[in-house]
């Protein structure tokens, strides 16, 4: 809950609380706030329990965190077997390195299913500039 509050911010909040409520009322305020937070947590847990019981046994593994779109997409991408096959067949790093190697004129390892864009005879001699293609620029 307070993962993003640093030490200086916490000290500032404590000093402000002492200045606003005073040292004599501060323990009562802390008790009231903690009681309120506890009630809110209990209410949300009971609401979650009620929703799970109303949904039935098919949704016993339902997590409310899955309603967050980022979490839902991440979960679907990691658990879906069809998508795993697609991701494994698509190796973008390999293809990008092949394109970068062909642009730079450095030899790359032969791909499994195709031919290099620049073959040995198309590569310029050392010190010679690669051919200029006006259509490509």
Automatic annotation (TrEMBL):
It is found in: Cell membrane; Membrane. It is a single-pass membrane protein. The chain crosses the membrane at residues 6-22. Gene3D superfamilies: 1.20.5.3310. Residues 98-137 are annotated as: Disordered. The keyword tRNA-binding does not apply. Its main location: membrane. Pfam families: TatA_B_E. Keywords: Cell membrane, Membrane, Protein transport, Translocation, Transmembrane, Transmembrane helix, Transport. Part of the twin-arginine translocation (Tat) system that transports large folded proteins containing a characteristic twin-arginine motif in their signal peptide across membranes. Together with TatC, TatB is part of a receptor directly interacting with Tat signal peptides. TatB may form an oligomeric binding site that transiently accommodates folded Tat precursor proteins before their translocation. The Tat system comprises two distinct complexes: a TatABC complex, containing multiple copies of TatA, TatB and TatC subunits, and a separate TatA complex, containing only TatA subunits. Substrates initially bind to the TatABC complex, which probably triggers association of the separate TatA complex to form the active translocon. Belongs to the TatB family. This is Sec-independent protein translocase protein TatB. It comes from Streptomyces sannanensis.
């Amino acid at each position: 809950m307070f993962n993003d509050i640093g030490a200086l911010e916490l000290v500032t909040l404590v000093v402000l609380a002492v200045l606003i409520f005073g040292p004599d009322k501060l323990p009562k305020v802390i008790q009231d706030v903690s009681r309120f937070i506890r009630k809110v947590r209990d209410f949300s847990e009971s609401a979650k329990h009620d929703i799970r019981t109303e949904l039935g046994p098919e949704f016993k593994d339902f997590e409310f965190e899955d309603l967050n779109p980022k979490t839902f997409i991440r979960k679907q991408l990691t658990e879906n077997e069809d998508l795993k096959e697609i991701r494994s067949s698509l190796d973008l790093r390999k293809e990008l390195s092949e394109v970068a190697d062909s642009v730079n004129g450095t030899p790359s390892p032969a791909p499994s299913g195709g031919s290099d864009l620049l073959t040995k005879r198309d590569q310029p001699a050392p010190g010679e500039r690669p051919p200029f293609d006006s259509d490509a620029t």
